[in-house]
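Query structure, 409 tokens:
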């Protein structure tokens, strides 16, 4: 973003001058031209102006389908119709000295979670095998806490080596604040990515967390980059932020050249200080994903926590701006089962980009089975009042032996 803040530009009459925004995306253009201009700028890796970025989030005249198409154009060029699949493993739960208000593992949360220390290597490796066999492209090990010691980092590095030697799956680690020493150890082990989310804007970071700073999180990402590890960082939408805060994070991630961006939608966990602010309609979530794609056109954009609960029946539309998602739940909350998510991806006409050893097997299995889904789940198709009671072989039901019923099937 420019040195002048978004809020300053919006209140400054000079910010409406032609020099402050792309003339192609001026509001004087017709609606079709405005969406096409956003798409063409993204294809040239040119970020939208801050005024147009706010329009994407808040414009009352925004039409959702043309916006999704504009975001889809750079997504399609960078990733085609592929969808990357990630599996999270909550390797260590609770026992955290930090006070991140959105997290059920923080020291002040009253959420009813079971706390446990780092799992055994055998358990972690077994879950890595399960992730690989499900067809996932990446296995993400997450540890609660402020950050690992050097010895703990060495243990994590050993797990990274072992996983990558056994299965064709990439590995990501999210273990809190880390510096160059930690990053170097993990880089030498072959770690593919290090995650540390910015979560919200710098200007309101103190409202979310007091035990560390926004700068601490940025420093962790910079340490990863210096040591040759891809960074993974995103945000949580729905924590009471304003649209300018979403913009700030999106532009900061562009500035840091983050190649993997998870967009979380706050999950309202009982006992947490920061709860759902009521702003997250499916359309709001889709607009946020479109904005993240238009500002970071070549990054992997992930539909992360809260996907099922906030997007609901519109989940498949999120695949137009985003090209990645989690399956089988999140750190402390449930998510849709892997096969249900795979069905959603295929039904929307997209392709699962899993690991080489298991993705083809997963796709072949899906093609050989009936794709019909019983409404409401379960295995009973007939209505309870219609289904005949169990009867002896060779007998006919009263319905089939009596008069014909009226109405359709």
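Result returned for the query:
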């Amino acid at each position: 973003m420019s040195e002048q803040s978004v809020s300053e530009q919006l209140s400054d009459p000079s910010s409406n001058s032609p020099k402050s925004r792309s003339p192609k995306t001026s509001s004087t253009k017709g609606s079709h031209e405005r969406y096409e201009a956003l798409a063409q700028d993204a294809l040239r890796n040119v970020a939208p102006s801050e005024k147009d970025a706010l329009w994407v989030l808040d414009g009352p005249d925004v039409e959702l389908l043309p916006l999704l198409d504009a975001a889809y154009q750079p997504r399609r060029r960078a990733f085609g119709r592929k969808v990357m699949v990630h599996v999270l493993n909550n390797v260590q739960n609770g026992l955290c000295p930090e006070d991140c208000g959105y997290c059920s593992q923080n020291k002040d949360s009253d959420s009813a979670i079971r706390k446990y220390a780092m799992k055994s290597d055998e358990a972690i490796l077994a879950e890595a095998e399960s992730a690989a066999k499900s067809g996932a492209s990446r296995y993400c090990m997450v540890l609660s806490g402020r950050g690992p010691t050097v010895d703990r980092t060495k243990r994590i590095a050993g797990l990274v080596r072992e996983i990558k030697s056994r299965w064709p799956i990439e590995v990501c680690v999210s273990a809190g604040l880390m510096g160059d020493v930690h990053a170097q150890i993990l880089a030498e082990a072959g770690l593919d990515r290090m995650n540390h989310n910015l979560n919200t804007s710098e200007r309101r970071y103190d409202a979310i967390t007091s035990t560390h700073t926004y700068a601490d999180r940025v420093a962790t990402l910079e340490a990863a980059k210096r040591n040759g590890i891809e960074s993974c960082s995103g945000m949580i939408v729905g924590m009471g932020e304003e649209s300018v805060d979403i913009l700030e994070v999106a532009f900061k991630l562009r500035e840091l050249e983050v190649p993997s961006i998870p967009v979380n939608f706050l999950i309202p966990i009982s006992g947490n200080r920061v709860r759902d602010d009521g702003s997250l309609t499916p359309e709001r979530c889709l607009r946020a994903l479109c904005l993240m794609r238009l500002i970071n056109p070549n990054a992997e954009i992930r539909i992360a926590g809260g996907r099922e609960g906030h997007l609901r029946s519109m989940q498949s539309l999120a695949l137009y701006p985003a090209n990645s998602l989690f399956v089988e739940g999140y750190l402390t909350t449930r998510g849709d089962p892997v096969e249900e998510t795979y069905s959603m991806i295929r039904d929307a006409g997209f392709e699962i980009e899993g690991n080489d050893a298991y993705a083809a097997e997963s796709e072949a299995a899906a093609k050989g089975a009936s794709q019909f889904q019983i409404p409401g789940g379960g295995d009973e198709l007939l209505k309870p009042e219609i289904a005949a009671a169990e009867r002896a072989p060779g007998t006919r039901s009263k319905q089939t032996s009596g008069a014909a019923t009226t109405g359709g099937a």
